Amino acid sequence: MVSSSRPPTERKSSTFRVTRSMSQYPTAINYLKAIHAGRCSSTHRPSTSSGVVVRVTQSTPVIGHTGPNNVDTLPPIARPPTPLPLNAPVPNQVQPVSITRFLKLLAYNLSKHMETKGLLYPLYSKKPIVKTFASDPQPMDPSRLPEVTFANLFNDDDPTDPPVIHRCLVLSGSFKFLIYGYVKERAHINEALSIVRPSVLWRGEVVVFTVGCQVPFIARTRATRKMVKDAVARYLSLISEALDNKEVPPSKISMNITA
Predict the structure, then answer these.
(1) Cβ atoms within 10 A of the Cβ of 150, count?
(2) Cα angle at 252 between 232 and 162, to 5 degrees?
(3) Is the pTM of this model over 0.70?
(4) Domain locations in the chain?
(5) Of 200, 208, 192, whose CA–CA distance to 242 is shortest?
(6) Which helix (H) or strand (E) holds 119?
(7) How far apart are the C-alpha atoms of 132 and 117, rounded to whole Å?
(8) Residue 53: its pLDDT value, please?
């Protein structure tokens, strides 16, 4: 009995020399594409000549990503992110704040919840007194002058007729004084202010605050009494002169001009 058996299938392979130089594939990506196209194999050894010896095995498929119609494709190439242009602002980035600016804002916000002391020249006293007022500074804006609440704090004879308050910033050297005052025709003459400026008959009251650079008001000023007195005298002269001439009172006075 003759047994018929098929000879074992031989693994077909072919070896050929690629005479083209490696300059045909200048990059690794082009070389991988050449492998996928079947022009060469992933296993090769370079020769000493200008060509490349490549062994192609038909039973060894090229491993890749399966694309449409079950066709092997090369893996996608990850592209680096596009760099931003020079000096381009980064989105959603908070601008840095200097330490000095931060301390000013912190001290300013804390002072909003504190009481303010001012030097008051009352109607029925020959001497000024220190009195506590409620301050209302502008939120988060130290460059603006603060406001002071005078409700039920001025000794006005007629509370039903609120007076018109004149606010003025007086500059004296490196010191800044914020002065509030009012005048009413039916009010008594302020004797304390008559001592400061005898030529002015001020019928009302005046209160003086010292304005700081980092906080709205300074509790203990380094200004002398004479500096405060001169600032009040200058305020009385210019405000009363403007009111007598039916003009708008000044909101800022410099002590560089002698009174």
Answers:
(1) 18
(2) 70
(3) no
(4) 14-73, 111-254
(5) 200
(6) strand 115-121
(7) 4
(8) 46
